[in-house]
Amino acid sequence: MSWFRRVGWRHLVAILAVIFSLGPIVFVLSAALNPLGTLSSSTLVPNGASPDNFTRLLQDTDFPRWFLNSVVIAGLASLLSVFLSALAAFAFSRRRFKGRRTGLLALLLIQMFPQFLAVVALFLIFSRITGLWPAIGFNTWWGMVLLYLGGALGVNTWLMKGFFDTVPKELDESATVDGASHTGIFFRILLPLVSPILAVSGLLAFIGTINEFLLANIFLTDGGSKTLAVGLYGLVQGSERNSNFGIFCAGTLLTAIPTVGVFLYLQRYIVEGLSAGAVKG
Amino acid sequence: MTAQLEGPATRALPVLRHIIRILLLGTVAAVAIWAAFPLAEGRHWTGLGILAATTAGLLYLYTTSRHIPAKYLVPGTLFLIVFQIFPVLYTASTAFTNFGDGHRGSKADAITAIQTASVTRVPGSTEYQLKIVTKGDGALAFLITDPATGQLSIGDSAGLRPAGGNPPPGYTVLNAGQASARSREITDFAVPTAAGAIRSAGLSRAYEGTAVRAYDQATDSIRDSVSGKVWKADEGAGAFVAGDGERLAQGWRVNVGLANFTRALTDDTISGDFLRTLVWNFVFATASTGGTFLVGMAFAIALQGRMRLKGLYRILLVLPYAMPSFAMLLVWRDLFNTDFGLINNVLGTNVDWFGTGLTAQFAVLLVQLWLGYPYMFLVTTGALQAIPGELTDATRVDGAGPLQAFRAVKLPLLLVALTPLLISSFAFNFNNFNAIYLTTEGGPFPADNPANGATDLLITYTYRLAFGGSGAQYGFAAAISIFIFLIVAVVSAVSFRRTRAQEEVYS
After folding, report:
1. One Pfam family, short name please (chain B) (predicted)?
2. With an 8 Å Cβ cutoff, are A275 and B39 in contact?
3. How far apart are CA B333 and CA A52, in angstroms?
4. CB contact under 8 A, B462 and A114
5. From the CA of B81, how many Å to the nearest CA of chain A?
């Protein structure tokens, strides 16, 4: 009894939590392996294992292309936006200038506007851009990346600023005495020290971009330019919903592999980064 | 840590620094030049001016040694201005107009559209031979031959003029396949003439027709020459209205002042929808944030102490967070399926989860819980680890039980640490479009009101107004998004103010 009161209940809670967490994921796995490949024949426990859904996904759809599009767009957008965000966070954390406080508040405020209701305006802007510079317009990697970079400064900047604040200013001062310029301080002292938060922000931005559906759905209409979110959504639309469920689940699993991999690899940083950022606001 | 401060590590080689700077500035200049050509070609002088000013500003900023904060802020801010602030301001400004289907362009556009749409063939008019041609930039034109005189003319949206060759230089004739691929465009294409317009009849013939409806400048109205009906221009509504109240579909965009805002608050059906949606929206955002936080925190506490398999539990627990959420939302939609959904199968029930308001609301909240609690679990785990062990020890010495110690010491500290995250999570969930759109799509809808469903958030409701099947109402949708903005901003500002006392946000 005392074992249960000390440790046992923890195991019980943990097992319940794991069942809740894994239930839908196991279902996706079974449905992906389900030889019939329909929703109505999918069960929690696999009723057979066949790679049919995976081969159909790779042969009958543009899945490899969607995958490439998603990884390139999300990869570029998250890398660049973390960099832009770190630059701004450095200025907010280390420099004192007019409008600093207003700037910080404004960043928070602009996040409150339901972004994609500006979608009409964005659509009009991009129609213009497509006419002038087709290389960065609709249905292109760069167009999407630029669009997502609009959101580079935001909550992430706050998180990073908080983390920058925890690095003692004395480090900068002694570096300045040693003759380092502000770029030297930023690139050679601060960036290496805040690498956990960079990793976390990068991962969050990557997950966020890969999951972004609404803008991508409007801006990427051409079959070959779709991202995973748009492409997979199209698989289970309308009458195809039941019959394509197996290949949809197969696609979901393949989409999850890179994120889950990076996630597990960075898990240590994530707890550290999120909590440190959280503590400092 | 100190090793990084010693010696030349802090000083990049001056030569290298100069090279990097030159390369970066060169890239900026190159991009600017690349962007300038199409602008100059299209004679967009304002755009060209803005581009030149921006480029000059950037080159100045990164060559001077002053304005150091700006050097770090400008790159992100540029994108922020172009892709967020500008669109948001534009959207906000449309809230004061009737912008939407039927009210897109200027009054002149509307008149042209009305006249061109009313072109009908006059019996006995000449039938021309037609070839469909395109200019270098892909714009359509009609190459027509008058059967009586053999006169060859080229016509585009600017009018008809004699053609200097067959086909004229600079034009290419479309073959049947290419033409039928653009057949819709061709059907809508009209070459304005003095009497009316030349339109196509099939892909090889064209006729000249006359516009039945014409605009009369003196009376500022449209007159139908067949029926004799007159539609007068109503500048307030941006439409031509007949005496019996009939409106022409093609209107123009006008300022309507605060009409969209008052409509949201006073129009009985709409304000009813708006209020009900607002209440559910608060419930949804609060329950999503609070529920995930409570469950995440409970699991974090349970997994705090020394125990076996802790690492494995933690990894399995946070897996939902790493799964692609858009796909999992679609999977959850099917888990709730009445006939072959997993939930009904496991429970042995036959509930139509998305069929009634309450079950649908419960279902979307459950999905939110599943998607969101791993994140809360992660951050609470981190925050709990940051609470010094001495504090808990001290409470134990003072004779407090574990529950009491938690409530008196850990919970307040946790809340201080996590409030900013909880607020931003609230703001995110308040506008969580995907959570609704990819599962219930706002439904179930009452039989008499297809515009507003039981699980609709303001954002999905507004989206339907703006892009929904019953015609776009951008102006009205923009007005509602301003309401959303105000609500979220006020809620966040109040909560931030209350936590500022405990926490130095602006340190």
Report:
1. BPD_transp_1
2. no
3. 24
4. yes
5. 7
Q: Is B373 helix (H, G, I), strand (E, B) or coil?
A: helix
What is the number of other CB atoms lying within 10 angstroms of the CB of residue A138?
Answer: 18
* A115 interfaces chain B, CB cutoff of 8 Å: yes
Q: Give the architecture-level CATH label for domain A60-280.
A: Orthogonal Bundle (1.10)
Tell me the whole-structure pTM to 2 decimals.
0.76
Residue of B nearest to A260 (CA): B322
3-state SS of chain A?
Answer: CHHHHHHHHHHHHHHHHHHHHHHHHHHHHHHHHCCCCCCCCCCCCCCCCCCHHHHHHHHHCCHHHHHHHHHHHHHHHHHHHHHHHHHHHHHHHHCCCCCHHHHHHHHHHHHHCCHHHHHHHHHHHHHHHHHHCHHHCCCCHHHHHHHHHCCCCCHHHHHHHHHHHCCCHHHHHHHHHCCCCHHHHHHHHHHHHCHHHHHHHHHHHHHHHHHCCHHHHHHCCCHHHCCHHHHHHHHCCHHHCCCCHHHHHHHHHHHHHHHHHHHHHHHHHHHHHHHHHHHHC
Domains of chain A: which residue ranges?
Answer: 1-50, 60-280
pLDDT tens digits along B272-305: 888 889 999 999 999 999 999 999 999 988 887 7
Distance from CA of A54 to the nearest CA of B (A): 16
Q: How many angstroms separate the CA atoms of B223 and B219, rounded?
A: 10
Rounded CA-CA distance A242/A89 in Å is 48
- CB within 8 Å: B466 and A120: yes
Q: Which domains are seen in chain B, by residue range? A: 119-211 (2.40.430), 265-500 (1.10.3720.10)
Could you say which of A114, A149, A241 has the minimum Cβ distance to residue B484?
Answer: A114
- For residue A168, which residues of chain B lie inside 8 Å, CB to CB? none
pLDDT in tens, A205-253: 888 888 888 888 888 877 788 899 888 888 888 777 778 888 899 999 9
Do the interacting molecules here have an ipTM over 0.90? no
